Amino acid sequence: MVAETDTGLLLRFNKREPEAFGRVYARLYDGLHLYGRMLFGKTDLDVKDVLQDIFLALWLSDTRFDDMVKLKGYLVIAMKNRYRSHMRHLVHEMRYDREISLEPGIGIEPGHLRMRGHLLELLNLLPEECARVMGYYIDGYRPEEIARVLHKNIQTIYNTKQRAISLLKQKILLKKGDL
Question: Which residue, 13, 14, 57, 67, shows the most beta carbons closer than 10 Å to its own?
């Protein structure tokens, strides 16, 4: 059997022939899977599922390709867009969770709300980045979640938290001395 050229394979792929589609999928899978693991490695999405969704959307679309380079570029951009979409969704979920947690009568004790209010007031004493990180901690986010939302290294989150605590201690001790 003579090996099929990329051009011939793409012609059949563009016609959505299942065998050609499967061959293209198999040929590009390993590289796309590796790229997907780099993108989605710290998320709850399974790279295999993302790839299947992207190829299914491609199967259902009318998109045609002149060469394999354009097809690969299309698939890489589709994966990047899926990642961005997932991250936007996570941010919206966190905002929603934060808003719900602020609603009175949703199982939060009034004393906790007052304490939370005092803590949020203290954040005004901090530099913006420290206040942002500490705000997430106050809202109950874990360091990994904060790092993901702020697109920071987890060690940066830990360091920022320590800096914020140190600054707050200094400011509180200064205020105590003024009394």
Answer: 13
